[in-house]
Amino acid sequence: MSEPTREEIYDKICELLKPYNPKNHPIKMSSGIMSDLEVDSVAVFDLVMGLEDHYDISIPMEMVSDIKTVGELATAIKELTSE
Amino acid sequence: MSLFDKYAPLQTRVDMMMKIGKDALGVEFDDIIDATRGRIGNREILLAGTNNYLGLTFDEDCVAAAKKAIDDHGTGTTGSRIANGTYTEHVDLEKAIAEHLGMPSCIVFSTGYQTNLAAISGLAGDNDIIFMDADAHACIIDGTRLTGASTIRFRHNNPEDLDKRLKRQGEIEGGHALVVIEGMYSMFGDIAPIDEFLDVTHRHGGYLYIDEAHSYGVFGPTGCGIAEAQGVLDKVDFLSSTFSKSLASIGGFCASKHPEFEITRKVMRPYMFTASPTPSNVSAARAAVEKIKTGGALRDNLMARAKQLHQGLAEMQYDLCADASPVIAVRRPNEAVAAMEWNWLIENGVYVNLAVPPGTPQSSSLLRISLSAAHTEKDINTILKAFADLKDNQGALMAGMASKLQAAE
Q1: Is B144's CB within 8 Å of A46's CB?
Q2: Crossing angle of helices A41-55/A70-82, nearest 10°?
Q3: pLDDT at residue number B308
Q4: Which of A34, B122, B249, B290 has a Cα-to-Cα distance from B93 of 20 to 30 A?
Q5: pLDDT in tens, B43-62
Q6: How far apart are CA B204 and CA B159, in angstroms?
Q7: Three-state secondary-structure class, residue B352
Q8: Looking at the domain assignment, is residue A78 inside a domain?
Q9: A1 in any annotated domain
Q10: pLDDT greater than 70 at residue B364
């Protein structure tokens, strides 16, 4: 797989977030995953597992704990897919 | 701005629950009568959510052992084993469990929660990587947070997914993989394929750690747990459990087939810097270990009651989360409905657990039932009758909830 752009990663996050966003909150790069989108802490880890599998990367839980927004998650995946 | 502003969304959820009825996460019993009966006000309550799997909390030998320990060695240890020393009760219990499991090392802790906190943080170092089942209990998650190790989550009860993630990680430089799973999972009551996890873990040179909090005493010919039931106990690297379920006390243990595990007594902070378990708690658990070894009849009764309840609820078309086991979780459509039904059940004399996200897998809202060997066939019929009535009264209950919520606004 060629290296994805941050925008492509953002689109993928939006797609995988759908089942965790029943109230259809608008998803922006600046959206807080737990604070704005109301995704609970366990569901965030489930979302991350889907992203790990899609990009064939490991995103350790301690890294996820530091990620608050959709943009920060996209940036982390961008870095991990560039390694 | 206040320190508590961050809890506003949580407060909204709690407020909703209180509008519907009682605080399901803070039930106050006026009396606990025996292993299956409590009392709230004048109403006797059938306890079906207390994890008292073998019903030993009022067992005369366990009670007598606890009382004798108080007479012999007092009510408290007043400190940790590194500061205040080890009591004979601690040593006896560690030896008894080690012998029961056929492992050379066993360490006793003050609570089940602290057991996983201590052992995981003691085992995994900065260069190791922890692989944790996605449905692992909070104490396992918190244990990983006390380490400098990276933690990777794998899909629940899925050895193939673990294999994929171990392969993805490749060679772990200067460290090892510690794979952490549970025997029977506390929320859904589903059971791990330990034999397959052992195979995958050992093929990658890792160590398998199993939390048998809900299965020690409950499964296996001599009650050692799911690993024994699956015939692979001798291959398990680390096995932890709690005293607060089948052992009818409070505390926990971690045992290992690696004698080197003993060194972790010198590094595990939740072991070193907390008071050791009291002589009475330890002695009650010690008496319960003997009951477990010969507890085939208790386990048979427990499984018979589990099958009876599971079958009855399935016949009523309730959505059950797993096959029959001592934990039976009934999936409800959402938190408000589950909370309302939970209230209806306790008002009608049946106590189960209300379990809601994020404490549940798949963001489920559950009415969680845990059974006891002390439950009778008649008790299960009482629970089934309550769930049947719940279904029959669903329309009236929904209308009642809507009016309660409206009235509160």
Answers
A1: no
A2: 30
A3: 98
A4: B122
A5: 999 999 999 999 999 999 99
A6: 12
A7: coil
A8: yes
A9: no
A10: yes
Residue A55: which domain range?
6-82
Binary contact (A62, B151; C-beta < 8 A)? yes
pLDDT-derived band at B80 (thresholds 50, 70, 90) equals very high
Helices then strands (H, E): number in chain B? 15, 14
How much is the pTM? 0.95
Residues of the domain holding B146:
60-293
Q: Indicate if B43 and B144 belong to the same structural domain.
A: no
Please name which of B197, B164, B161 lies closest in space to residue B179, comparing C-alpha atoms.
B197
User: Are B168 and A58 within 8 A, CB to CB?
Assistant: yes
Q: Tell me which residue in B152, B361, B363 faces A58 most closely, judged by beta carbons.
A: B152
Would you call A60 and B145 a contact, using CB atoms and an 8 Å cutoff?
no
Q: Which residues of B touch A38 (CB under 8 A)?
A: 9
| In contact, A80 and A52? CB cutoff 8 Å | no
CATH number at residue A50: 1.10.1200.10
Nearest Cα to Cα of residue B299 among B376, B380, B219, B375: B219
pLDDT digits (tens, 9 = 90+) for A40-81: 888 999 999 999 999 999 999 999 999 999 999 999 999 999
